[in-house]
Amino acid sequence: MSILRVENLTKTYPSAGQPLTVLHEVSFDLAAGDTFAIVGPSGSGKTTLLGLCAGLDRATSGSVWVNGIQLDKLSEDERAAVRNQHVGFIFQNFQLLPTLTALENVLVPLELRGQRGATQTALELLDRVGLAARANHYPAQLSGGEQQRVSLARAFANRPAVLFADEPTGNLDPDTSERVVNLLFELNREAGTTLVLVTHDLELAAKTQRTLRLRGGRVVEEILASAK
Ligand code: ADP
């Protein structure tokens, strides 16, 4: 069953001079449990593509289906509901609720589900990402890498169908980076979460089943694990 399907996705940004098309007819189809990396030089459209797949922005043309739901037919509110229900994020600039502590951020999805022992579970998840000692810190009191790890703990709490991560190892030291990568793939194995990773880290990309290489907003190559 297709968990994320993207068909002929094109994105044009309006601009003062000439409109700028940054994605050209990108298509792919991921099944439940797939692991997928999007690579390419800076400015090639990776983050734009991730935002469209996650329903954070709308394509100029083309379609996106998440868990069989066609996003481009939905209102802003309806897309937000799909995100809350099916999607997890590890984004540099779009992640934690700033008015809640790390612990509370992880607690939200557990409490929404009415899970018993939610606080204990949330603390265990923070411990798993190495942040038990930061449980009562607010996002602004955490480094970018720590915020990313709280997002990861929240994703474990949420067990989303698809997890989108933008440069998940981008600003982490090698040890933390290894820990985050291991956790991402544990989430994939334990919860069957489909991983969609934008990364410059070719070692990380090599661990996924499929890699899409973008250049100038076009797919220039798709590499399957068997060929890696
Ligand atoms: P990457 O993630 O591969 O670095 P991006 O998706 O961030 O690439 O950007 C692709 C292109 O789109 C770049 O030329 C960037 O300047 C442009 N771009 C991104 N967001 C906007 C926006 N909101 N308005 C106009 N241009 C944008």
From TrEMBL:
Gene3D superfamilies, per the entry: P-loop containing nucleotide triphosphate hydrolases (3.40.50.300)
Which keywords appear in this protein's UniProt record, sorted alphabetically? Answer: ATP-binding, Nucleotide-binding, Transport
Checking InterPro entries in the record gives: AAA+_ATPase, ABC_transporter-like_ATP-bd, ABC_transporter-like_CS, ABC_transpr_LolD-like, MacB-like_ATP-bd, P-loop_NTPase
Claim: Heme is one of the keywords in the record: no
Q: Locate the ABC transporter domain: which residues?
A: 4-227
Q: Which GO terms describe its cellular component?
A: membrane protein complex; plasma membrane
Q: Name one GO molecular function term.
A: transmembrane transporter activity
The coiled-coil regions, if any, are: none
The record's listing under SUPFAM superfamilies reads: P-loop containing nucleoside triphosphate hydrolases
Q: Which CDD domains match?
A: ABC_MJ0796_LolCDE_FtsE
Family to which this protein belongs = Belongs to the ABC transporter superfamily. Macrolide exporter (TC 3.A.1.122) family.
Q: What is this protein called?
A: ABC transporter ATP-binding protein
Taxonomic lineage of this organism?
Bacteria, Pseudomonadati, Bacteroidota, Cytophagia, Cytophagales
